[in-house]
Amino acid sequence: MTIQACLFDLDGVIVDTAKYHYIAWKELANELGFDFTETDNERLKGVSRMASLDILLEIGGLTFDDEKKQQLATRKNDRYVEYITRMQADEVLPGAKDFLTELRAAGIQTALGSASKNAPTILERVGLTPYFDAIIDGNSTSKAKPDPEVFLKGAEALGVKPANCVVFEDAEAGVEAALAGGMKCVGIGSPLVLAKANLVVDGLHQMNVALLRKSFSQTT
């Protein structure tokens, strides 16, 4: 394949905002009268906001009507947004900015493919907006990963065929979305969790254009 574009998930690949989700959920749980641990939080990974709230309420043994649940979900999200609007450039994960810079120098386009509706805010706060040719977020998609919609829209925005794209993902559902879209995928994290990815590394600090081309130039 000829690599013409790289598409990136945001959380866990470019930045780590998971800690802010956890803090916001924990504060909500404490307000409702129960604790929410990091172990509990593992159940929320890759889960939508409302489904996450249902899990949280299950843990607390609480039941509310839909209107109240919407209020609680909004309260959690407002608090999360407060945290991310204070993010700084030093919260970019190791190697991310260097790799993005190298890709652009090599003429390889870049796009962000994230379910987060707050992705543009986060990129702006950490100073990475200029490093992406296209940003596809939760405001422009309707289907969650493992549906490939977000990555297919990214490829379309760049004018690149899916077969010429490599996706960088840290979640199993994201890897499945990339493959379902006809793209290659680099997993960021555990080889056990991301076994379906074509290549798995610890983080973008281990990536460079030479490795990218070596890994995928002979694949079909």
What is this entry, summarized?
The protein contains 9 helices and 6 strands, in the order βαααααβαβαβαββα. The protein has helices at residues 18-31, 38-41, 49-60, 66-84, 96-105, 119-126, 149-158, 172-180, 209-216; strands at residues 5-8, 109-113, 134-136, 165-169, 184-188, 199-201.
Describe this structure in words.
It is elongated, with a radius of gyration of 18 Å. The protein contains nine helices and six strands, in the order E-H-H-H-H-H-E-H-E-H-E-H-E-E-H. The chain folds into two domains: about 5-15 and about 90-215, HAD superfamily/HAD-like (Rossmann fold), CATH 3.40.50.1000; about 20-85, Putative phosphatase, domain 2 (DNA polymerase, domain 1), CATH 1.10.150. It has a six-stranded parallel β-sheet. Helix 1 crosses helix 4 and helix 3 packs across helix 4. It has helices at about 20-30, 40, 50-60, 65-85, 95-105, 120-125, 150-160, 170-180, 210-215; strands spanning about 5-10, 110-115, 135, 165-170, 185-190, 200. With about 220 residues, it is of the alpha/beta class. The N and C termini lie close together (about 5 Å). The longest helix is centred in the middle third of the chain and has 19 residues, at about 65-85. Helix content is about 45%, strand content about 10%. The mean pLDDT is about 95.
